[in-house]
């Protein structure tokens, strides 16, 4: 199953991290933007082409360092159909380079709508007896707070494709506690109940490394909760946002891992793709800067865990 694929890539590269591809035009070096705008005009088309060149350069620079990338769909959707077409290209290119692709879509609808989302992002659309794939990600992020019927269509689609999904549990944003930390029953919380549901939804889908097809999102910015969730979800692979720019540290994220550095992947977006903004070279070195930042992140985390 798909978390086996991700774990193998982590072991191969001795690196439990994922680089977030947040496609904001202001993150693109000026010389790339200028060239694209001169050719295609200042607008959606020019922005999309600038971001495409930026993404390709980042993927080329990172593909032998990180095991996975995580494009955030919102940054492509805001560029309309051209942005979504570019996202499809980006996913395809990343997979061609051997990267595991987590589409950060955070969908959370029910019934036939969830099924349609799952077809678009994971299994493909059935048309006249044939199946046609579009985004074809290896994994997606989901919001499960509408219950099992918002998640099961994705898990069913993932099953047929050897793919998987991460479900939000305890997120890294400051307002997460407004709902997720609310008391729910004797000594429990809403996020704790969600953790139990995920283990229940994925039961029976364990792979080679013992992880179910439904993973969980647990932020590095709340290390105490992260530690509790790791103990509570022994069969669940964790996606850990919040490292770096949001304040999470390597010491914090160590709690996401199990024996031999398994069972988790840590995300950094701006810290990697915007590393060029701190070098003083106006982006001419954006690939080298991203690569150096990714290596530094790997080495930082691996001070606390040993991947085997």
Structure characterization notes:
By secondary structure, the protein is of the alpha/beta class. The protein has 13 helices and ten strands. The chain has helices spanning 2-13, 30-40, 44-62, 74-77, 80-96, 111-123, 152-161, 177-180, 190-201, 223-232, 250-253, 270-273, 286-301; strands spanning 17-21, 68-71, 100-107, 125-127, 130-132, 139-142, 164-170, 214-218, 238-240, 264-268. The strands form two sheets. The chain has an eight-stranded parallel beta barrel with strand order 1-2-3-6-7-8-9-10, surrounded by eight helices. Strands 4-5 form a two-stranded antiparallel ribbon. Strand 4 (125-127) and strand 5 (130-132) form a beta hairpin. Helix 2 (30-40) packs across helix 3 (44-62), helix 3 runs parallel beside helix 5 (80-96) and helix 3 (44-62) crosses helix 13. The longest helix has 19 residues, at 44-62. 49% of the residues are buried. The model has no long low-confidence stretch (mean pLDDT 96).
Outline of this structure?
The protein has 308 residues and is of the alpha/beta class. It has 13 helices and ten strands. The strands form two sheets. An eight-stranded parallel barrel has the order 1-2-3-6-7-8-9-10, surrounded by eight helices. Strands 4-5 form a two-stranded antiparallel ribbon.
**What is the overall silhouette?**
globular
| Quaternary status | single chain
Share of helical residues: 40-55%
Q: Tell me, rounded to a whole number, the average pLDDT.
A: 96
| Total E-strand runs | 10
Number of helices: 13
Largest sheet: 8 strands, parallel, barrel
Portion in beta strands: 15-25%
Uncertain stretches of 5 or more adjacent residues: none
Strand order of the largest sheet: 1-2-3-6-7-8-9-10
Structural class determined from secondary elements: alpha/beta
């Amino acid at each position: 199953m798909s978390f086996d694929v991700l774990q193998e890539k982590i072991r191969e590269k001795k690196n439990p991290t994922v680089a977030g591809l947040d496609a904001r035009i202001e993150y693109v070096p000026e010389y790339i933007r200028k060239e694209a705008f001169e050719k295609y005009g200042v607008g959606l088309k020019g922005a999309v082409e600038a971001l495409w060149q930026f993404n390709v350069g980042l993927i080329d620079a990172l593909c032998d360092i990180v095991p996975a990338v995580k494009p955030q769909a919102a940054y492509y959707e805001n560029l309309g159909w051209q942005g979504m077409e570019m996202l499809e290209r980006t996913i395809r290119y990343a997979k061609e380079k051997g990267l595991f692709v987590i589409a950060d879509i955070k969908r959370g609808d029910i019934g036939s709508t969830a099924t349609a989302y799952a077809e678009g992002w994971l299994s493909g659309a059935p048309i006249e007896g044939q199946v046609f794939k579009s985004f074809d990600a290896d994994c997606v992020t989901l919001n499960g707070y509408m219950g099992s019927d918002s998640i099961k269509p994705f898990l069913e689609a993932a099953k047929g494709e050897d793919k998987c999904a991460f479900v939000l549990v305890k997120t890294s944003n400051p307002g997460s506690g407004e709902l997720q930390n609310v008391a729910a029953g004797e000594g429990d919380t809403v996020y704790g109940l969600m953790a139990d549901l995920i283990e229940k939804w994925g039961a029976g889908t364990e792979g080679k490394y013992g992880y179910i097809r439904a993973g969980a999102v647990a932020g590095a910015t709340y290390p105490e909760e992260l530690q509790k969730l790791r103990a509570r979800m022994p069969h669940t692979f964790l996606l850990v946002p919040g490292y770096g720019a949001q304040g999470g540290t390597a010491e914090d994220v160590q709690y996401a891992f199990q024996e031999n550095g398994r069972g988790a992947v840590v995300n950094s977006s701006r810290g990697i793709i915007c590393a060029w903004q701190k070098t003083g070279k106006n982006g001419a070195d954006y690939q080298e800067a991203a690569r150096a930042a990714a290596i530094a992140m790997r080495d930082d985390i691996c001070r606390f865990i040993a991947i085997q």
